[in-house]
Amino acid sequence: MTRKHLGIAVAAFAAVGFAAYAVWRLRDSGFSWTEFAASFYHVDWSWLALAFSLVMATYVGRALRWEIMLRPLRKDASLWRLFTATAIGFTAVVLFGRAGEPVRPYLIAKKEGVSFSSQIAAWIVERILDLLMVLLIFGVALTQVSHSAIRPGPRTSVVLQVGGYTAGLTGAISLAILIGLRQFRSSVHQRLIRALSFLPERIVAKIQTILVSFEEGMQSTRGGWTTFLLVAYTVIEWLVIAAAYYCFFRAFPATAMLRLTDVVIVLGFVAFGSALQIPGVGGGMQIATVLVLTEFFSLGLSTASGIALILWIISFVTIVPIGLALAFHEGIKWRSLRHLEQS
């Protein structure tokens, strides 16, 4: 058995074991499949359609933000090509998990004729900006708990306090990294090259090429106006995401009573949970949604699970048919993308 086949077998065995454990736990947790199915009934399709439209708008927003990061390298970057790469890239994340993240910068680099390393740098900038916004939303959510419908008990209060400190620490680290990357210049990578001079010359030359490309990708954070645009687009992006969540929860009778403050609280926790993405099935997002809806808003486990599933489908899975169609139109082979994620 090859190493690849062994990995597939281990993953399949783990998935079967997890599924069996989940079924066993659900049997003893009072989970009702009838209530789960009932969460799909009486949905207000107009609110759900509006939520879907806003989610699709966020993908366009991500393409617009990436176009700003590309300006120092490619002033005539095509928004359509960027959207295509974005749709295919997020499809890869849904299908392959977080290992599919390099697909988007790879496709953008290939389509726009720039180095892959420069687009990895742009991807890092995007991740940091999004993380800072998530931390901001999470911090706001924690401060608004007392003004919401939540009545936290002692255990929940401890969790919220720990979460607040963790968010603050992570935010400070992320901001420090962003400032450090903003100051990343030729003098820095020259010091790195001198420090690595003990390595073979061929390896040092390859590292130097990567560092030069990385420095090119960081140029978008050095101009004051460009940095302002990146921050502004990030804020707008997350305002649209918050609006999509508000419309989504308005679509279900069980959550229609949630106020905007409550929705921001859910978004803050769910955004954290989204960091864990199991290939093909999501994972962290659904768990975070279920926990918040059951523990904070007293929804039943079955109803919360149904709403969490639909939220994951609206937020992530709906881009998959578009991404697959665009990949087919572009003649992209998914096998080659799998090789990319494993490289």
From the helix content, strand content and strand pairing, which structural class follows? mainly alpha
Distance between the termini: 21 Å
Choose one word for the global shape: globular
Taking pLDDT < 50 over at least 5 consecutive residues as the criterion, the unreliable ranges are none
- Helices and strands, in N-to-C order? HHHHHHHHHHHEEHHHH
Task: Summarize the structure in short.
By secondary structure, the chain is mostly helical. Helices cover 76% and strands 1% of the residues. The chain has one domain.
Descriptors for this entry?
15 helices
Give a description of the structure.
- The protein is mainly α.
- It has one domain.
- It contains 15 helices and 2 strands.
- The protein has a two-stranded antiparallel sheet with strand order 1-2.
- A hairpin with a 3-residue loop joins strand 1 (277-278) and strand 2 (282-283).
- 32% of the residues are buried.
